[in-house]
Structure formats: C-alpha cells, structure tokens
Specification:
heterodimer; A: two-stranded antiparallel sheet; B: Alpha-D-Glucose-1,6-Bisphosphate, Chain A, domain 4; 7 strands; 31% strand; disordered C terminus
C-alpha cells in the first residue's frame, strides 16, 4: 500500500494517470509527446506506477501499451468506504460538480 | 496496428494463492457466482467449447461465447457476447503468472492475475458497463481466495507491507 501512496504523491505521475484515463493503452512515446518531461523521466515514472500496480501493460508486437489499472484504488476505496456509502458520496460529488460549474 | 485493435482494458491484481487454485476458481461452475455478479458460468473450458452465463434470478442467458485457448493453469481465452445486444463478440484473456519473488518474498507464493478485454465493436454500447464491473469482481475473487490464508496480501501486493 505504501507503494500506491508514494506513486500518487507526485504530480507528474498523477498527470500520466490522467492521460491514460483519457486514452487508455498508450506507448511510452505517445505518453511522452504532450508532456513537458523527457522520455527518460516518463519511463522512470511509469516504472514506479507499474511497481505500485497502478499501471498494467500488454505487448502488441513490439509496442508496450500502458493501461490505468484501477484495482489498487478499488481496494483502497473498499477499505475506507462502506458499500452503502457509495450512493451518498456520488450524490455529494454530483452536487459539488454542479455547483462548481455554475 | 489500428487504434481499435488495442485492448479496452487491462486489469492486474496479485493474489496470494497458487495458479491451480486460481484456475479452479475461474472455471468451476459453483465457485464463479461467488465473485461474478452471482451468475453461473457453464463451460467445459476446453478449446472450441461453448461458454454460457445465466442470470441468477430468471435463468435467462446473460452472455455467451466460445473458448479460443485453454492452457490450464496459465492462460484462458474466450469470446464474450452479451445476449440482448447485437454487437459482435469481444474477447477476454486471463493470464496467470507467478508473481515476482522480489516483490513477494520467498515465504509466500503469489500469482499475478491479468484480465484483458479487447476487440469490442466500434462505439460499443456495452464496453462501459463491462469496465465498471471488472475491479469489483477482481476484489471479490481475491478476497475469496485469500480468506483462508494467514497472510493475505490485503490491500495488494507486497508481503512486508500491512
């Protein structure tokens, strides 16, 4: 679990996860292109994310595709959020989203 | 490679169990409903055979498919077609590999379980529902397999944490 929090404690790594959420299954080159980071830096961050199991990957031919892996985050939410709370929390979230848009 | 040929999602979890026990949990008719939305899945899991999943309440067909590859206890590939949806079948792959001992230590055996779902129809109507269901089922499966272990991986991965 420490790995997950350490991995998430970095804005660059959260940005990589955001990019994968927008478009899952990207190569290192695709991920590095729009980010203001060197390819080596992105590779290093990806390794930390993979070690924490927040990113999983598959090979398609020579290409390694990276995916946001939500399983550890699901485990975290199961630990601190009771099942019946999900609906209430979603309602709160919708309210917040709506009010902040206005 | 066209963009549509890449998998829609790749989920990975680490479970403190053996490949054989995980394979059995994935392919035993009575065990599957304990983590898979309560629904039964029937198949011999031999290559070329049918896979059928039935609704737990009314017994109607929920989804079906065909076993494309079966290599117990490491690799299972089958097609997946939702019964009430005219879309073409997509494809599910289960990969079971030993977890890296650097991460888990020599004391406990753990497996890395990867679920890949790909080849959905273009603009698929079902893909989002399928993606939402995945992590919950994986969590339940993990909890079930580790429930009689003295040293569950708990929130995941490394034995020395937690």
């Amino acid at each position: 679990m420490d790995d997950v929090f350490r991995a998430l404690a970095d804005a660059h790594r959260r940005e990589i996860l955001d990019r994968l959420r927008e478009d899952n299954g990207q190569t290192l080159s695709q991920l590095a292109a729009p980010l203001e980071m060197s390819r080596q830096a992105v590779a290093k961050h990806l390794l930390i994310l993979e070690k924490a199991n927040l990113v999983s990957s598959v090979f398609r031919g020579r290409e390694k595709l990276h995916y946001l892996n939500p399983v550890p985050l699901h485990e975290l939410s199961r630990r601190w959020i009771k099942p019946f709370e999900s609906a209430r929390l979603e309602t709160l979230h919708q309210l917040k989203t709506k009010l902040e848009k206005d | 490679m066209t963009p549509s040929s890449k998998p829609e999602f790749v989920y990975t979890t680490y479970i403190r169990t053996t490949p054989e026990k995980l394979w059995a949990a994935l392919t035993t008719e009575d065990v599957i409903p304990r983590y898979w939305f309560g629904n039964a899945v029937k198949s011999s899991w031999d290559q070329g055979d049918a896979v059928q999943s039935f609704d737990r309440d009314d017994g109607s067909l929920d989804w079906d498919g065909e076993v494309l590859e079966s290599q117990p206890p490491h690799r299972l590939v089958f097609t997946f077609r939702v019964a009430d949806c005219p879309e073409k079948a997509s494809r599910v792959t289960y990969k079971i590999t030993p977890a890296d001992p650097d991460d888990f230590g020599p004391s406990g055996e753990a497996v890395k379980f990867t679920v890949i779902h790909e080849d959905f129809a273009k603009d698929s109507q079902i893909v989002h529902g399928v993606i939402r269901g995945g992590p919950g089922s994986l969590s339940k499966l993990k909890t079930m397999l580790e429930s009689d272990s003295h040293e569950p991986l708990g929130l995941m991965w490394k034995h020395r944490e937690e």
